[in-house]
């Protein structure tokens, strides 16, 4: 299966997906990495790794026009499944409908807890004993579609949002390639 990855920044989850795709018997290949931020560090990493990249800033454009460009780039690359990896922009209902059931995302919380931003800070403030990450299907509702897999991380007494984020990120890099591989096979 041909996968397109949408990023906005660092792209460490994207890199984990690319690296896993090069392992034996991986059922997906990364056909395109696209970003809404032309300066995203992840784009440079992807290009260095020999992956086709596409950058399109939404500045000065209607959302529909911006998304049409992303959509065209994905289709031109033969993409069948989209993996969001730190893509910081809400997809429109129209875009989600066009790719219904074929977009997945990784989110740094144990959904349905802590949809949206600042997940680690909110887990610490709530006094939770565990945090984690979730891979889910993307629907019109933010961080709301069916959960495909999760990994848990114990919260330590001295954790800060940053220390917790670092340990959760390690689990993200393990979880996302595994769930994407399962997802493209189903
Ligand atoms: C990750 O924590 C991911 O769960 C969230 O945004 C962050 C992206 O990090 N959606 P990276 O760009 O993959 O390094």
Content of β-strand: 15-25%
Shape descriptor reads: globular
Strands of the widest sheet, in order across it, are 3-2-1-4-5-6-7
Number of helices: 6
**Helix share, percent:** 25-40%
Succession of helices and strands: EHEHEHEHEHEEH
Oligomer category: single chain
Structural domains: how many: 1
CATH topology name: Rossmann fold
Would you count the extended β strands for me?
Answer: 7
The level 1 CATH classification is: Alpha Beta
Low-pLDDT runs of 5+ residues are none
| Ends distance | 11 Å
| Secondary-structure arrangement, i.e. CATH architecture | 3-Layer(aba) Sandwich
The profile of the biggest β sheet is: 7 strands, mixed
Find the structural class using helix and strand composition: alpha/beta
The whole-angstrom Rg is 16 Å
Bound molecules: 5-O-phosphono-beta-D-ribofuranosylamine
pLDDT averaged residue by residue? 98
Your description of this structure?
The structure is a single chain. With 186 residues, this protein is α/β, with parallel strands linked by helices. The chain has a single domain (2-185), classed as Rossmann fold (3-Layer(aba) Sandwich). The chain is 38% helix and 22% strand. The chain contains six helices and seven strands, in the order βαβαβαβαβαββα. The protein has helices spanning 12-21, 41-48, 63-76, 93-98, 119-125, 161-185; strands at residues 2-7, 29-35, 53-55, 81-84, 103-107, 130-137, 147-154. The protein has a seven-stranded mixed β-sheet, with helices on both faces. Helix 2 (41-48) links the parallel strand 2 (29-35) and strand 3. Helix 1 (12-21) runs parallel beside helix 6. The model has no long low-confidence stretch (mean pLDDT 98). Bound molecules: 5-O-phosphono-beta-D-ribofuranosylamine (GRF). Residues 7, 9-14, 42, 85-86, 106-108, 133, 169, 172 line the site of 5-O-phosphono-beta-D-ribofuranosylamine.
């Amino acid at each position: 299966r041909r996968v397109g990855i949408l990023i906005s920044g660092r792209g460490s989850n994207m890199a984990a997906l690319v690296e896993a795709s090069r392992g034996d018997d991986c059922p997906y290949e990364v056909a395109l990495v696209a970003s809404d931020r032309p300066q995203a560090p992840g784009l440079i990493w992807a290009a260095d790794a020999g992956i086709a990249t596409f950058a399109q800033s939404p500045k000065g454009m209607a959302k529909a026009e911006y998304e049409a460009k992303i959509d065209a780039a994905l289709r031109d690359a033969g993409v069948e499944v989209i993996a969001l990896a730190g893509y910081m922009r809400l997809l429109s209902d129209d875009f989600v409908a066009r790719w219904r059931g074929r977009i997945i995302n990784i989110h740094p919380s144990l959904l349905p807890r802590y949809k949206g931003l600042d997940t680690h800070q909110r887990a610490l403030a709530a006094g939770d004993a565990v945090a984690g990450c979730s891979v889910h299907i993307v629907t019109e509702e933010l961080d709301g579609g069916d959960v495909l897999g999760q990994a848990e991380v114990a919260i330590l007494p001295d954790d800060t949002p940053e220390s917790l984020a670092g340990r959760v990120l390690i689990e993200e890099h393990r979880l996302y390639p595994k769930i994407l591989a399962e997802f493209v096979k189903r």
